[in-house]
Specification:
Layout: H1 9-13, H2 41-56, E1 58-61, E2 64-67, H3 70-76, H4 86-89, H5 96-118, H6 124-145, H7 167-185, H8 205-223, H9 226-232, E3 245-248, H10 260-266, H11 276-281, H12 301-304, E4 305-306, E5 355-356, E6 385-389, H13 391-404, H14 411-429, H15 446-461, H16 465-479, H17 485-494, H18 517-522
Protein name: Starch-binding associating with outer membrane
InterPro entries: SusD-like_2 (IPR041662), TPR-like_helical_dom_sf (IPR011990)
Organism: Patiriisocius marinus
Length: 546
């Protein structure tokens, strides 16, 4: 695994001191209020980079965590438990934080472009990075909301209530912006930005060019543009672990810079319920229906999931027992979780239920010690990552395109390469001892990985055309643990993988998100939309997923 420089909010903002002659109090200024002459481009770019992770994952504010787009996506795609109906998870508060941070970030991108225009030497790398993140963010807004303000956005004098642009036109504009960003990142300059995401010793523009090209590929997959994917597949894209686009956390407490999954589940008691159907796809418990894939536990299982108790849930800890509406209730092997949309009462099981492990949360490795998460003798102390777009994702995307868009390439080879990249990343991520108290080494071996890939290969070779598409989507889903954004797109785009239906009448699956109430209240040009609306690239029939 590449040598990660652990980022904290403090260390990220140390860039404020680089080439800056202002005093400490000036560091508290909002970059939106700084004029072109006084602004430090490193300060502004650091703000943009941090804002993007806030939009995607969320942020701690005065000790409370405000979600980005990721948490609700993980819930509705059954990666973690969804409690209750869809409209209780996706409502007009869900994207308030991401929306406000996005448009503040766009203003800072405008600012850094103005700084560049007024600098005789130029700062093309700063601008290129900012433009890539702006394009990524606008694409996410379109993927979740459809039409959003774009051409009139952040121009309050001319357009105090900006109108909406079509999602399709915004996608096209972002692809053009990515080409502009690639041009800036290909320029010759000695002025290097601080890079929060690609944590090497020196800034490498090629990493950001790879991300820009990969975002174009991602957009082409959503829109079904096979020709664009074929052209992009031979360019500089994210296809090695070293190019993975991720945000790295540290073990710093003040300010809170540990992974939010760790903070919410290891400091006091486990708060997040994990998902029985996701356990089943990992073959965590038994080998009973509905999801039985290859008959062996996923080699990533002990890295993804940590079990706190050496006991089966029962009695008040298993209120679903005997209720026929549940597909699972309990999957077995001491993996405590909940079925999709289970809204039954919550037992006092925080110290007992299974929780996040080493990857991506920076928690504990499951070596059958069965110690309460807050009391483990060894963990990664929150030094985890947000896996935003990984090299494994690229290979799964290319495999899907080969099957559905005729882009060429061997879909099976691309898929198995994606699995291998995911295994390498997850297994190498761990820095902890894997020997249990019983003397057994519980770390997955190369043979375990090879056996897993061989079984998936055999399953794939025996599958129908539709079955092959589902297997690719399933393996992407399993590699994406910690990222609900890409599975949400894949599920709407393909209908795969087959996911557990809600065990209660949960309403229509959210094909789109609702606008934040802060936006609809302040802007009469934004009318609220139902969850049954569809983004422009989602051309599948109404109701085809639940």
């Amino acid at each position: 695994m590449k040598n990660l420089l652990k980022i904290t909010l403090v260390s990220a903002l140390m860039g404020l001191f680089v080439g800056c002659e202002s005093g400490e109090l000036d560091l508290l200024e909002n970059p939106n209020d700084i004029n072109i002459e006084s602004a430090d481009p490193n300060f502004v770019l650091n703000s943009i980079q941090l804002s993007f992770n806030t939009i995607f994952q969320g942020e701690f504010v005065l000790g409370n965590f405000r979600d980005g787009v990721n948490s609700s996506s993980m819930q509705i795609t059954r990666m973690i438990n969804q409690f209750g109906q869809y409209n209780s998870i996706v409502d007009d508060n869900t994207l308030v934080n991401s929306w406000s941070n996005a448009y503040r970030m766009f203003a800072n991108v405008d600012l850094i472009e103005q700084i560049d225009a007024n600098d005789p030497d130029g700062i093309p790398y700063h601008v290129g990075v900012a433009q890539v993140l702006e394009a990524y963010t606008y694409m996410i807004l379109v993927d979740y909301l459809g039409d959003v303000p774009f051409t009139e956005a952040n121009r309050p004098i001319e357009f105090p209530t900006p109108g909406l642009d079509s999602g399709e036109s915004i996608y096209a504009a972002q692809i053009a912006l990515l080409d502009t960003a690639i041009g800036n990142l290909s320029a010759d300059t000695n002025i290097l930005p601080i890079d929060i995401y690609y944590n090497g010793e020196a800034f490498d523009a090629n990493n950001w060019i790879a991300l820009a090209n990969t975002l174009k590929l991602r957009a082409a997959l959503n829109t079904g543009d096979g020709a664009a994917i074929s052209a992009l597949s031979s360019q500089n894209i994210i296809d090695t672990v070293e190019e993975d686009f991720q945000f790295s956390y540290s073990n710093t407490l003040e300010p809170e810079s540990r992974h939010p999954f760790f903070v919410n589940n290891y400091l006091a008691t486990a708060n997040t319920y994990l998902s029985n159907p996701y356990y089943d796809y990992l073959n965590a418990g038994d080998t009973n229906a509905p999801f039985v894939e290859n008959g062996i536990a996923d080699p990533r299982l002990r890295f993804y999931i940590y079990r706190q108790r050496d006991e089966e849930p029962s009695g008040s800890n298993l209120p679903c027992a005997g209720n026929a509406i549940y597909d699972y209730c309990y999957v077995g092997n001491k993996y405590w979780g909940r079925d999709h949309a289970d809204d039954e009462g919550l037992p006092n099981d925080g110290p007992k239920k299974s929780t996040y492990g080493v990857y991506p949360a920076g928690g504990a490795f499951d070596k059958n010690d069965f110690v309460r998460a807050r009391d483990v003798s060894e963990s990664m102390e929150g030094v985890g990552i947000t896996p935003i777009y990984l090299s494994s994702f690229t290979h799964f995307a290319l495999a899907e395109a080969a099957l559905t868009l005729g882009t060429g390439g061997n879909a099976l080879a691309l898929m198995t390469q994606g699995i291998q990249l995911s295994m390498d990343k997850v297994l190498d991520f761990n820095t902890l001892d894997t020997d249990g108290a019983d003397g057994t080494d519980y770390e997955a071996t190369n043979a375990d990985v090879s056996d897993y890939i061989a079984r998936v290969t055999a399953e794939y070779n025996g599958a129908s055309a539709a079955g092959k598409e589902e297997i690719v989507a399933r393996e992407w889903y399993l590699a994406a643990f910690g990222n609900g954004v890409e599975p949400y797109n894949t599920y709407r785009r393909t209908g795969y993988p087959t996911l557990q239906s809600p065990i209660i009448p949960a309403g229509e699956f959210p094909r789109i998100y609702r606008y934040p109430n802060t936006a609809t209240t302040a802007n009469p040009n934004i009318d609220q939309q139902p969850l049954t609306n569809q983004v422009f690239w989602d051309t599948n029939p109404a109701g085809f997923i639940d």
